[in-house]
Amino acid sequence: MRAVRDALRPLHDAAVKRELDAIPVGRLQDVTEGRLRLGSVEKSGLRTLGSVLEAGPYRLRRIPGVGQRTADQLLAAARRLSDAVHETVAVHIDVDRPEPRTTALVTALHVLVEAGPEARRAVDAAAGLVERLEPLLVDARPATGRVRMLLAGREKKARAVAAVAGIRALVEEAERAGVPELLAQASVDLLRVPASDVAAWVDFELRSAEYYSLLAEISGRAPDAAAAEGFLPDEIAERVRTQQLDDTHRRVSLRGYQAFGARFALAQRKVILGDEMGLGKTIQAIAVLAHLAAEGQSHFMVVCPASVLVNWTREIEARSALRVMVLHGPDRHDAFADWKGRGGVGVTTFDALRGFPVPGGGEVGLLVVDEAHSVKNPQAKRSQAVALWAEHCGRALFMTGTPMENRVAEFRNLVRMLDGDVADALGERDALAGSVAFRKAVAPVYLRRNQEDVLTELPSLQQTDEWEELSASDEEAYREAVRAGNFMAMRRAAYARPEKSAKLDRLREIVREAGENGQKTVVFSYFKDVLGVVREALGDTDGVSLFGPLTGGVAAGRRQQIVDDFAGVAGPAVLLAQIQAAGVGLNMQAASVVVLCEPQIKPTIEHQAVARAHRMGQVRPVRVYRLLATGGVDERLVKMLEAKTRLFDAYARRSAVAESTPDAVDISDTELARRIVEEEQERLGMTGEQGAAAPVV
Q1: Residues of 132-154 as b/e, b for ≥16 C-beta within 10 angstroms?
Q2: What 3-state DSSP class applies to 696?
Q3: How far is CA 351 from CA 181, 356, 375, in A?
Q4: Do 222-453 and 2-88 have the same topology in CATH?
Q5: What CA–CA distance (Å, rounded) separates 587 from 308?
Q6: Torsion angles phi and psi, residue 26, rounded to 5
Q7: Closest by CA position to 260, among listed 288, 299, 293, 219
Q8: Looking at residue 660, what is its pLDDT?
Q9: Whether residue 549 has a cis bond before it, omega within 30° of 0
């Protein structure tokens, strides 16, 4: 750890200096409540906080109008801001621009990452031994020599004899627990060096989340505690903090907020983990499974979409010592019987779950439901099956980054599967009162954290709306779709005539530019035929490998293979993906450019898609382009998306909002589509026109 701290110090100091040099001197007014007159200071050439600190008291006093008292006040205010920067600034490791200082840091971290959690257990075991041995060694000192023992008084002799016996017992206990072997292995692991600097950098790119996790822990620059704990009420947060977390069967370290999430699930028993995507909900679930297995639980069930079955089995196998079985496909009932007899983690789909017998009380240690917003409709058979299993399991962990899309009633349906009393307490009045009342009401079962609050090292996310003027050909196709009253045709009209498509021309430019920079791109569309058009258009792009399209019709295992192939290919590449199929469960952090071919009806669909690339493990800045056509359906959808996003933020994302939310009214997709079609027909003068059709949605 000392090597990491030594390598980190100059990088952190440089990051602090850059930050201070970017803060205008006017910010000192915030600290002094406007009491300082800074005009003469700025005229003297000291325009940033860094320059004020570097100038020091002597140069400040030489500025006309700045005396000793003003200079002291300036420096005191500047130091207060500087201290805050020191505490909050994070070191970002630029994988594309390695230099000696960052290489030294990555190499030092590599040793600890390779050593893994076993090294931490060795350190903890050693610390525990030292704590227990120290008082015994003090008492046993007379027994280190015959003369000392003879000269010691009766009481000291008795304590020495007892201490020697205590030391022997402690050594025997440590040997039975395998502590000598643990310490020996840790010594070997911590002395091992990477084969080369290149090997350390390659490993960092593959496992950057683990590197940054250790870096945050060692540097002590953890995220804001309240944010990391989801702004839970004090009494619940305190109960969670005291919950133990056994890592015996776990093979990966947790970040502080992840450990808190796992403890929350254990302490509260039946919960919804609503962390924003990219924060490692799967890892937190595995930590809960591993803890319960260490306590003696033998059977667990994970329910998830078919598209992420493979990902779940991989994650459990790689990050824990737990046995995992896929309960899916034609042999699922045989697999279920095997799982019931031998135990382990069964991984199945929502539809397959309906065919399995409901467990008896206490039989299943934990039910994990991934993408739990898929069961928000209580009338759906899959929802009823999940609710029945949750009722018969003592513990349940629902996971979703989008627990509330349009209305609080849907979120209440999820809560009801876990705790009827909390669901009953969550009335419309709480919802309309704003998120403070909402979060307080659901706190016993709901925890949510956001990327910006807890992933300080995450590379930047730049989102750009690319507004394109429709070509004459595009406009003609769009008017035909409006005249037919066909909402879906209106949404993809910009690609209906590829040879003169304005959006397609811009898409080619984005992919070409990304390719020239060696970047990988993922292109999302709601429509399979649009992806087909895009694939044909990009087929002649030099030096760019094409993958996909990844659609709902592609088998779950094949989807993961396509993503793996995309990540593994050297050089620039493009992955084409249907947003509903690839926006859930698949990790695409190999991509640093994301293109959305058209705006989506629900903001959460777009958020999910972007989060597949901009997530923990991403080491490069992510650039998101949303291709939009001026006028027409795209503009209307963008405005409605903004309204829905504000509603989502108020209830599910922020910890508090000052304003009420009068727009908290659901508009179903069908109503929204019909309204847009009618408004567009009116705008284009087609109302009552011969040949104009009623809306088709």
Answers
A1: ebeebeebbebbeeeeeeeebee
A2: strand
A3: 47, 10, 11
A4: no
A5: 10
A6: -60, -20
A7: 288
A8: 31
A9: yes
Contacts of 100 (CB under 8 A, 6+ apart): none
The whole-angstrom separation of Cα 75 and Cα 58 is 11
- The per-residue pLDDT for 405 is 44
Closest CA to 276 of 649, 640, 660: 649
Nearest alpha-carbon partner for 622 in 508, 505, 514: 514
Give the model's pLDDT for residue 326. Answer: 94
**Which residue from 68, 49, 50 is spatially nearest to 58, judged by alpha carbons?**
68
User: What is the distance between the alpha carbons of residues 505 and 512, in angstroms, rounded to a whole number?
Assistant: 11
CATH top-level class of 460-631+667-683: alpha beta
The secondary structure of residue 651, as a DSSP letter, is I
Distance, in Å, from the CA atom of 415 to the CA atom of 270, rounded to the nearest integer, reads 9
Residue 98 burial (C-beta neighbours within 10 Å; 0-12, 13-18, 19+): middle
Could you tell me the fold of the domain covering 222-453? Rossmann fold (3.40.50)
Q: Strands, DSSP E only, in 588-656?
A: 593-596, 622-629
How far is the first Cα of the chain from the last one, in angstroms, to the nearest whole number?
60
Positive or negative, the CA dihedral 116, 7, 12, 94 is negative
Alpha-helix runs per DSSP H in 23-96: 28-32, 39-43, 49-61, 68-88
Please report where in the chains the tokens 């979060």 appear, as a residue.
439
Helix and strand numbers (H, E) in the chain are 33, 13
List of residues 6+ apart from 143 with CB closer than 8 A: 149, 160, 161, 163, 164
Q: What angle do CA 610, 612, 616 make, to 5 degrees?
A: 110
Pull the structure tokens for residue 608: 């999910």
How high is the pLDDT of residue 663?
A: 32
Phi/psi at 242 (5° precision)? -85, -5
- Domain 2-88: give its CATH code: 1.10.150.20
* d(C-alpha 351, C-alpha 330), whole Å: 13
Claim: this prediction has a pTM higher than 0.70: no
So where are the chain's domains?
2-88, 113-203, 222-453, 460-631+667-683
Q: What's 368-387 look like in SS3? A: EECCHHHHCCCCCHHHHHHH
Which residues of the chain carry a pLDDT beneath 70? 30-36, 194-195, 206, 220-224, 277-278, 402-407, 427-437, 456-460, 582-586, 615-619, 643-669, 688-697
Which stretches of 613-668 are DSSP H helices?
Answer: 633-648
Q: What pLDDT is attached to residue 612?
A: 75
Identity of residue 51: S
Q: Which residue in this structure is represented by tokens 């009552």?
A: 688
